[in-house]
């Protein structure tokens, strides 16, 4: 596990030793601790990975069945649908590893007064609330997403190049920022609403919605897309960018939109945190 410390020190040497590097080292320490904890229960870890791969495989079977009877769905071919699914699976997999266990636990932490303990730490509260615990047994989703992308691009007539690779990385980052922001808003509402326990239900609805293109909603797509503009940034817009369905200038729009959504969410978090009543008050 010394590799985590060495990597953090190496990056710190290159980029400097300011506050940002302090949080980078903290992140690597948290990663090391959580990985050790996961590997103490290897059977549970492997079972989690296997079950995750199983559910993704079932969704692939469903898509295969759809395209047994049609060449496209709302203008999306099989390869294009798989590219969208692969992008979403990578975003969801990264989110499930680093953010999901923490944001899902936030309502309970607020209800039990455990947030008091986190607030007193000499670090950014949102950083600790979001990244304290990792679930590496959920990494199978991201790995399957990468595999789906490779398979989909082999089916597609599009030639994958280095420029497209970097564009794909950026869209995944922007999608992850938006996905995190949306779930954080739901979790933060527990400061105002006691015993908010439906976070997992909301998350399942989001997951089921985002794994398919909004175009598949038919004549309602425009209206729904207007209502769910933040969510289209997670997978549908990135897939359209990679596939050339929208101009490359949309990448700049996606960047602005994702940073704007995160900024508003961060402001909402800080305002809500000031309204939080500690268990000792």
Structural account:
The protein is mainly α and 281 residues long. It is built from 14 helices and two strands; from the N terminus they run αααββααααααααααα. It has a two-stranded antiparallel sheet. Helix 4 (78-98) packs across helix 9 (162-188) and helix 9 packs antiparallel against helix 13.
DSSP strand content: under 5%
Which stretches of 5+ consecutive residues score pLDDT under 50?
Answer: 10-17
Rg result? 20 Å
Which of globular, elongated, flat, extended, rod-shaped describes the shape? globular
Percentage of residues in helical conformation: over 70%
CA(first)-CA(last) distance: 41 Å
How many beta-strand runs?
2
Please state the average pLDDT score: 80
Encode the helix/strand succession as letters.
HHHEEHHHHHHHHHHH
Q: In which order are the strands of the major sheet placed?
A: 1-2
| Overall SS class | mainly alpha
Please, how many helices? 14
Largest sheet: 2 strands, antiparallel
Which helices and strands occur, and which strands form pairs?
Layout: H1 2-15, H2 19-39, H3 42-66, E1 72-73, E2 76-77, H4 78-98, H5 100-112, H6 115-119, H7 125-131, H8 139-155, H9 162-188, H10 199-210, H11 221-227, H12 229-232, H13 236-243, H14 250-275
Antiparallel strand pairs: 1-2
Give a brief description.
By secondary structure, the protein is an all-alpha fold. The chain has helices spanning 2-15, 19-39, 42-66, 78-98, 100-112, 115-119, 125-131, 139-155, 162-188, 199-210, 221-227, 229-232, 236-243, 250-275; strands at 72-73, 76-77.
């Amino acid at each position: 596990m010394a590799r985590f410390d060495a990597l953090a020190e190496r990056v710190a040497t290159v980029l400097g030793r300011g506050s940002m590097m302090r949080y980078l080292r903290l992140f690597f320490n948290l990663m090391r601790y959580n990985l050790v904890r996961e590997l103490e229960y290897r059977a549970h870890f492997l079972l989690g990975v296997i079950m995750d791969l199983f559910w993704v495989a079932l969704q692939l079977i469903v898509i295969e069945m759809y395209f047994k009877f049609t060449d496209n769905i709302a203008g999306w071919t099989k390869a294009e649908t798989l590219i969208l699914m692969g992008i979403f699976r990578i975003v969801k997999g990264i989110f499930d590893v680093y953010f999901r266990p923490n944001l899902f636990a936030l309502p309970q932490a607020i209800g039990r007064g455990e947030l008091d303990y986190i607030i007193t730490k000499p670090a950014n509260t949102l950083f600790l609330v979001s990244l304290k615990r990792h679930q590496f047994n959920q990494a199978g989703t991201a790995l399957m997403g990468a595999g789906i992308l490779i398979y989909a691009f082999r089916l597609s007539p599009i030639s994958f190049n280095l420029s497209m690779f970097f564009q794909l990385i950026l869209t995944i980052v922007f999608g992850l920022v938006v996905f995190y922001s949306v779930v954080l808003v739901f979790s933060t509402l527990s400061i105002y609403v006691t015993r908010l326990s439906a976070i997992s239900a909301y998350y399942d609805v989001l997951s089921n919605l985002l794994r398919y293109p909004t175009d598949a909603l038919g004549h309602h797509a425009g209206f729904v897309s207007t209502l769910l503009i933040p969510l289209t940034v997670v997978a549908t817009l990135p897939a359209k960018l990679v596939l050339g369905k929208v101009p490359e200038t949309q990448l700049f729009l996606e960047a602005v939109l994702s940073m704007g959504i995160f900024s508003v969410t961060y402001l909402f978090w800080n305002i809500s945190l000031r309204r939080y009543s500690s268990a000792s008050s």
